[in-house]
Amino acid sequence: MIGFLKGVLVAKRPPRITLEVAGVGYEIEAPMSTFYRLPQIGEPTTLITHLLVREDAHVLYGFSSEAERSLFRALLKVSNVGARIALAVLSGMTVEGFRECVANKDLDSLIRVPGIGRKTGERLLVELADRLPPSDTTASGGMPLNASPEGEAQGALLALGYKPNEVVKMLANLDAARLTTEELIREALRRVHAG
User: Fold this and answer.
1) 54: burial class by Cβ within 10 Å (0-12, 13-18, 19+)?
2) CB 56 within 8 A of CB 42
3) What confidence category does residue 87 fall into, taking pLDDT thresholds of 50, 70 and 90?
């Protein structure tokens, strides 16, 4: 089993990342929540991984935090939920957002995630009600790996219910290097309400 990979980011084209580790290029599929936290091409990064072995392929999945990987693994245990749906869930909402949906039996929020229909949403709510991993599974003392103000702002906006493509537009052209997480969120929300 491959627990994590630490290397240089070579390419990032959703849903695939290429990471060079000791001269080997690993192709890794990842949710959008992980893409938001990736550094620039050519910079070092660490991804927590899950290797899925199927009859026709071995697929490596990468995550920016242990909480994401734990939720991915929990989702795979739900009947008729595969890796594609698990990635859709992680791309459409934060881990905490998903926990809240399950705790509140919030089917409406869950079926807003692309790829999740009513039956699948109901199945997720029922089967994961008692099986979600503990919420304190993020690495680095509760912060996701490669956490940055921009990544945290993106996660917060996703948790507020904005879609991934909306979040990208909301944060476009903001000076992420100069602004704090709170300032990025405030400015992004100001843009939405001003437009």
Assistant:
1) exposed
2) no
3) very high
Map out the domains of the chain with their CATH numbers: 4-63 (2.40.50.140), 66-127 (1.10.150.20), 149-194 (1.10.8.10)
Beta-carbon neighbour count of residue 36 at 10 Å?
24
Comparison of pLDDT for 152 and 181, the residue scoring more: 181
Q: How far apart are CA 124 and CA 89, in angstroms?
A: 10
CB-count exposure of residue 69 (10 Å: 0-12, 13-18, 19+): buried
Q: Which residue has the tokens 């599974």?
A: 137
Is the Cα torsion angle 117, 95, 79, 130 positive or negative in sign?
negative
